[in-house]
Amino acid sequence: MSDIINQLHQHRSVRTFTNKKLTQEQLDAIMRAAMQAPNWINGQQVSVVVVTDEERKRKLAELSGNQKHIDDAAAFLVFCMDYSRNKHAADMHGKKLEVMENIEAVMVGAADVGIALGTAVAAAESMELGTVPIGGVRRSPAEISELLELPELAFPVSGLAIGHPADPLPPQSPRIPLDAFYHKETYTHNQQQAVEEMDQKQQEAIKARTGETKPHPWSERVAAFYAERYKDYGKVTDVLKQNGFDYK
Fold this sequence. Notes:
alpha+beta, 4-stranded antiparallel β-sheet, 4 strands, globular
């Protein structure tokens, strides 16, 4: 296996950081890697706002659900789907930017953000930095857009906290069985078994880490999250519309 493959296999999220800063060379290398990531039609509909200012990071931590690791990180990167450049291109050639009225645009922008963010994670971890993605930026999209002075047609999709790990790297989080993720030729309908195995893996991981034997099923946590999280979904769609998207 190559060093890159081994590194990818060892990924884990890091939430405790030292107060050591990142160098400009490190930030530039991470950003260049993310910019070079694949994207739909080379439309380059992603922008990243890199925040190192302590007060602004503190405000972002608060707006993202009071996540302290954002405040503690050396840098917090806010990945945005951004069609503002595409709008300028359309205007230059007298074309209407139809993406503003189609849900496909949101899917493309979010997918491209994910690819860029994953590339940034790999780049940062190659320098022995710790990372943790933060979906909480979508909790307060209007306030974060204002704080970062985002233009119309730009929307914060995910954040990435980066820093020097403060503690030994944590254990990797359990994953579903490979054959529930990796389907050959056609989809294998084995997800019930995968959920049950994941519950068992989660329990074994908790016991190994803390000694606790009280049940903490992965399935229960996921079920509770998705039962409650999207009650506020209208807030996201409202801000998308305020930012110029009125998708069908």
